């Protein structure tokens, strides 16, 4: 108890010292070296972080917070504090001093031209490049990606024929009905780079596209857009993997933010804007079924804004009516393309969301599988908004059986367990953004902030009502738009008022702290490349005993090897030639029926 108590006292004293130094306490005039630090933000921030590092020890000792998480926070605070103080000291050194070596003089000269924004920009570029290396070289994490995203991409591009590999019966029907745009693009990357790991590049590219959108449309600095997004675990984890949740949510986020810009009159509706809306809506609706309702609602909100533009142009009633009619007709044609997947499914299968079971007015439409129904009873009994709120705030969502606190699907436990799928936004980061959003809307009360409030209220009201909304990876757009709106409002605020603490640089520093905690807690798995190719991953996940039973020319039905049954395909084992069908482990009668006379391996 003595050491934590002493640390608390030292932390309080050091925090007071930093404050008095920053305001230029009169008694410090007798100590010129201290008084010169008046108003020095590097020194006060660095010293304050070190003070907090010392003071927070008592919280862990009493047991008010998770010791492991608190240790990570203190480590980040301490290292950052030491860095800021050292950085400030190096910037104030006289580079002409004869006591400095040539190397030291060179370092000081460089640092004099550097600032926090430069460092943050370099840091964001470094992380993005590191994630690129993961997306290009690593194939060591799959799940759904290996069960059907990569197989779909291979089928669409003829990389692996149906004779070489046939999906499970249910997955085959998903291939017939699910939106396939993202899988087609994954296959394009596979063909371009001649390696299956390149399918990861779709998610990575979508992140870069969204950052570019924030930079050029919302005028958010590159470092701020990058770091505030990467601080969201779900975004960083998905950015380098072959899941398709991030690309779809990038499309929805761009669509929502474009709607926002149109309503605050920061963007003019023209051919370029129409193309942006068309591409973002089409990309989202043709990537994930779950995103189609969100796209539909966003387009409905856009419609009055689009029609009113042409109606307000000069001209008589007849000309206005003609212009509005042409616009509506063009929007209708665009909507057919945007919603081509549900339209195709309605025509072919009499169900817009085939193969998923849908009931309309008591009528059950043609289907092949029921919607997921593995929700734990403790989650099911909560109202949708409380269920979703528990997930975004990460209240009792972590499980020690997971290799890291956060995973792509918050899985590694049974589907029917209470904590399955919950979490992924970093609860503390959500709370921070909420406080910042309230402050920005209060401080900068105008059309921009009021419209942002409406956007957030609509998203928060509707998102929890969507299927499996508590599994946050399906609806990442909520957090991505939330962060983007905070960045936008903050940048506009500092354009009008001088802000010492509430500014883009400090927001990026806070985001950086959350990133460092995330990297530490996940052992850098989602941030640093392991250079583990798919072939190396397959060595562990293809059972040699089972594979050796397959002979050239065999027609095999492989049972119970999902999500890795795809790796048993002859494509990955040249020059072997055989036909493989995969099937889930079900009843013997089901397996016998679906395998259709093939040699069964379990």
> Over the alpha carbons, how many angstroms does the gyration radius reach?
28 Å
Distance between the termini: 58 Å
User: How does the helix and strand content classify structurally?
Assistant: mainly alpha
Uncertain spans: none
Task: Please estimate the helix content.
Answer: 55-70%
* Bulk shape: globular
Mean pLDDT: 88
Strand content: under 5%
Order of strands in the sheet with most strands: 1-5-4-6
The number of distinct β-strands equals 6
List the total number of helices: 27
Largest sheet report: 4 strands, parallel
List the helices and strands and how they pair.
Layout: H1 2-23, H2 32-35, H3 41-55, H4 57-62, H5 67-92, H6 102-112, H7 116-137, H8 144-156, E1 165-166, H9 169-177, H10 181-193, H11 201-216, H12 222-230, H13 233-238, H14 245-263, H15 271-285, H16 292-311, H17 317-338, H18 340-349, E2 359-360, E3 363-364, H19 377-380, H20 384-392, H21 427-443, H22 447-462, H23 477-496, H24 504-521, H25 534-541, H26 544-547, E4 555-559, E5 579-583, H27 588-595, E6 599-601
Parallel strand pairs: 1-5, 4-5, 4-6
Antiparallel strand pairs: 2-3
Helix pairs in contact: 1-3, 3-5, 5-6, 5-24, 7-12, 8-10, 11-14, 12-23, 12-24, 14-15, 14-16, 14-23, 15-17, 16-17, 21-23, 22-23
Structure description:
With 602 residues, this protein is mainly α. The protein has 27 helices and 6 strands. The strands form 2 sheets. Strands 1-5-4-6 form a 4-stranded parallel sheet, with helices on one face. Helix 1 packs antiparallel against helix 3 and helix 14 runs antiparallel to helix 15. The N and C termini lie far apart (58 Å). The model has no long low-confidence stretch (mean pLDDT 88).
């Amino acid at each position: 108890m003595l050491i934590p108590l002493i640390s608390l006292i030292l932390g309080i004293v050091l925090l007071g010292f930093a404050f008095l130094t920053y305001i230029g306490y009169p008694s410090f005039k007798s100590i010129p070296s201290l008084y010169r630090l008046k108003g020095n933000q590097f020194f006060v921030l660095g010293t304050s972080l070190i003070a907090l590092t010392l003071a927070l020890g008592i919280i862990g000792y009493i047991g008010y917070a998770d010791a492991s998480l608190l240790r990570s926070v203190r480590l980040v605070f301490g290292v950052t504090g030491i860095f800021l103080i050292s950085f400030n000291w190096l910037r104030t050194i006289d580079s002409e001093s004869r006591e400095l070596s040539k190397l030291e003089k060179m370092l000081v000269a460089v640092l004099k031209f550097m600032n926090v924004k430069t460092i943050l920009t370099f840091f964001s570029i470094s992380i993005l490049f590191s994630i690129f290396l993961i997306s290009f070289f690593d194939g060591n994490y799959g799940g759904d990606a290996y069960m059907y995203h990569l197989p779909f991409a291979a089928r669409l591009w003829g990389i692996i024929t149906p004779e070489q590999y046939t999906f499970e019966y249910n997955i085959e029907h998903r291939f017939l009905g699910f939106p396939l745009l993202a899988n087609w693009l994954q296959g394009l990357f596979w063909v371009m780079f001649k390696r299956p790991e390149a399918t990861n590049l779709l998610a990575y590219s979508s992140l870069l596209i969204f950052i570019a959108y924030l930079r050029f449309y919302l005028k958010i600095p590159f470092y701020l857009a990058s770091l505030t997004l990467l601080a969201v675990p779900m975004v960083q984890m998905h950015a380098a993997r072959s899941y398709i949740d991030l690309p779809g949510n990038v499309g929805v986020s761009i669509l929502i933010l474009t709607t926002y810009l149109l309503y605050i009159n920061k963007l003019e509706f023209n051919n370029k804007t129409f193309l942006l809306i068309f591409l973002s809506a089409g990309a989202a609706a043709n990537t994930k079924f779950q995103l189609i309702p969100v796209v539909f609602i966003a387009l409905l909100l856009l419609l009055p804004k689009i029609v009113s533009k042409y109606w307000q142009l000069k001209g008589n009633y007849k000309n206005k009516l003609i212009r509005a009619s042409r616009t509506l007709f063009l929007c209708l044609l665009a909507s057919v393309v945007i919603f081509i997947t549900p339209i195709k499914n309605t025509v072919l299968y009499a169900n817009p969301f085939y193969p998923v079971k849908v009931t309309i007015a008591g009528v059950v439409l043609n289907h092949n599988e029921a919607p997921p129904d593995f929700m734990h009873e403790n989650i099911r009994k909560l109202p949708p908004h409380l269920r979703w709120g528990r997930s975004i705030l990460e209240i009792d969502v972590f499980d020690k059986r997971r290799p890291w606190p956060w995973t792509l699907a918050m899985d590694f436990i049974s589907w029917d367990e209470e904590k399955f799928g919950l979490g992924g936004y970093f609860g503390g980061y959500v709370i921070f953004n909420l406080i910042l959003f309230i402050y920005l809307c209060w401080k900068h009360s105008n059309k921009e902030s009021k419209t942002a409030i409406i956007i957030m209220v609509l998203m928060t009201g509707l998102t929890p009502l969507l299927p499996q909304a508590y599994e946050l990876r399906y609806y990442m757009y909520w957090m991505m738009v939330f962060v983007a709106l905070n960045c936008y409002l903050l940048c506009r605020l500092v354009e009008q008022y001088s802000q010492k603490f509430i500014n883009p640089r400090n927001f990026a520093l806070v985001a950086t702290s959350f990133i460092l905690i995330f990297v530490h807690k996940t052992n850098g798995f989602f941030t640093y490349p392991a250079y583990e190719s798919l072939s190396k991953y397959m060595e562990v996940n293809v059972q040699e005993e089972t594979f050796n039973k397959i002979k050239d020319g065999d027609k095999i039905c492989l049972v119970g090897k999902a999500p890795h049954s795809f790796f048993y395909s002859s494509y990955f084992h040249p020059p072997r030639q055989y036909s493989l069908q995969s099937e889930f482990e079900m009843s013997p009668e089901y397996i016998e029926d679906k395998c259709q006379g093939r040699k069964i391996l379990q």
